[in-house]
Amino acid sequence: MLVASITGSIITAIGDWGVYAVFLLMVLDGFFPAASELVMLYAGALAAGAVPGEHVSLFGHEITTHFWAYVVVVLAGALGNTIGGLIGWAIGAYGGRPFLERRGHLLHVTPEKLARADSWFDRFGDAAVLLGRITPILRSFISYPAGIVRTPLGRFTVLTFIGSLIWCLVFAGIGWAVGASWKGFHHSFRYVDYLVVALVLLGVAYLVVRLVRGYSRREA
Hints:
With about 220 residues, the protein is mainly α. The protein has helices at about 1-15, 20-30, 35-45, 65-105, 110-125, 125-135, 145-150, 155-180, 180-190, 190-220; strands at about 55-60, 60. It is built from ten helices and two strands. A two-stranded antiparallel ribbon has the order 1-2. The radius of gyration is 19 Å and the shape is elongated. The mean pLDDT is about 75.
């Protein structure tokens, strides 16, 4: 299964490269969905010392205190996600809506996702950056409309970092709490893969129903 393969690849990358993999994966997730939940869950478990034979190290030095290891992975994730968000902002600001409408599929940016992010800005203003960054799925796309409307870069950076920090604290904390039972958790995580596929199918069904109803109303 593709999702299971992606899950295994993420865990392997973090196991091999530690904090650097967390940072780079969260950069990617700032503008392209890269399973940030799993990244930070595993990073939290790694910081707690729950993964046999693996530890958190920074610049070649092993961090022996679990608390500081947790702080390091959270900051790596939040900083990486903020940089990724800035990349998304730049794409929106300099590519504009025409670019995203033409090439957005390469970044998994569909017109529906862009419209949803737009509606958040219409409703919440600049606060949409913070709220979007702690909302599953939308968090990877909220930077594009922020760039399109040219949300002030300083304000955008601060709001993105705060939202990313909250996200990383929560999911790394869950990974930490799972702790010693990580093996069992990892074994059971395959069911999340199935759940993700089911949710995608439900989402597609929902969109089809919405489109059919919208077409029927227009015809009426």
